[in-house]
Design brief:
The chain is α+β, with helices and mostly antiparallel strands. The protein has helices at residues 17-24, 41-47, 81-91, 133-141, 161-170, 172-177, 186-193, 198-219, 231-237, 269-283, 292-298; strands at 3-4, 7-11, 31-35, 50-53, 73-78, 118-122, 144-148, 224-226, 241-251, 254-264.
Length: 299
């Protein structure tokens, strides 16, 4: 178990557990994480890091272990969104080694004025805007707030079949040679994936295309949105997400970080990071770090 520097009795989530834990502990200035279905966002949430899961195809995956060809993404894990922008500026674009990687413009600092940007939020009639702290901060920053609804009529969770089927294909040699010791839950997933009919895989991808179109209709209304239970949706559609610390809570007597996410349009990381960075500078939660001296003395 890779330990969470804020609470060493707790793991750092995954799969980029080491990247997030080392960055949160100050062992490195930044790290590169990989995400197929939450593996940048989840460890950043747990460890209080700032991270960027870029648009699918925005950065090369050459040299990284494949899990699912149509879903894998690489991005920076840092202490601040500003650092994420600097690292992303260095790694984005085609390199001729990953055929999915393309070059698109990325400008940092972004020159768009915040008051010109429309930021969506998940409509919740039970909780007024004035009672949602993150929306109050964004409104005070000058952005235009717009209520939105994420797609909810398609069987999104069932589309995870795509991930497991592609992973089973990647690891087919290990499955056939029964060389799967120490891989936790994955051996069963690999074996099950061997028996997924082509019809089911293709049907899931047709539904995925419909989901992509629905997400594009949502993002026609706004430049980006805050929050939302969208991890599976956005990993299937390839939209970029920034994650950053957003306060603290007590968990079994230990103070641990909370997080917030911002999700943007395809290939529009500049605007996404501009709003996320402004929010971070206003709230300042990224300036707090785990007390490693106390942990070291305790151990």
């Amino acid at each position: 178990m890779t330990r969470n520097p804020w609470n060493v009795e707790q793991g750092s989530s995954g799969s980029s557990a080491g990247s997030a834990s080392a960055t949160a502990a100050g062992l490195t200035a930044f790290a590169i994480g990989s995400e197929t279905l939450g593996s940048i966002v989840s460890p950043c949430r747990r460890c209080g890091c700032s991270g960027l899961r870029p648009t699918f195809g925005r950065s090369s995956r050459h040299g990284c272990m494949t899990l699912a060809w149509s879903m894998d993404k690489l991005g920076p894990i840092c202490r601040s969104i500003e650092d994420c922008a600097i690292v992303f500026g260095a790694i984005h674009g085609a390199d001729g080694l990953d055929p999915t990687a393309v070059t698109r413009p990325f400008h940092w600092p972004n020159d768009a004025e915040l008051k010109q940007l429309k930021v969506g939020y998940i409509d919740n009639e039970k909780v007024p805007v004035d009672e949602r702290p993150e929306l109050v901060v964004l409104r005070d920053l000058g952005v235009q707030l717009r209520p939105i609804h994420l797609p909810d009529e398609l069987p999104v969770r069932a589309m995870a079949l795509i991930l497991n089927t592609e992973a089973a294909t990647v690891f087919d040699p290990l499955t056939r040679s029964n060389n799967l010791a120490g891989l936790n839950r994955w051996p069963d997933a690999f074996r099950e994936g061997e028996f997924v009919p082509a019809v089911e895989y293709l049907r899931a991808n047709r539904l995925r295309t419909m989901l992509m179109r629905e997400m594009e209709r949502v993002l026609e209304q706004v430049d980006l949105y805050v929050g939302g239970n969208d991890l599976t949706i956005t990993n299937l559609t390839g939209h970029p997400t920034a994650v950053l610390p957003n306060g603290f809570v007590e968990l079994a007597g230990t103070r641990v970080p909370r997080a917030i996410t911002f999700t943007g349009r395809l290939f529009e990381e500049s605007k996404l990071l501009a709003v996320a960075s402004a929010y971070q500078q206003e709230t300042g939660f990224h300036l707090e770090h785990p007390d490693l001296d106390t942990l070291t003395a305790k151990d």
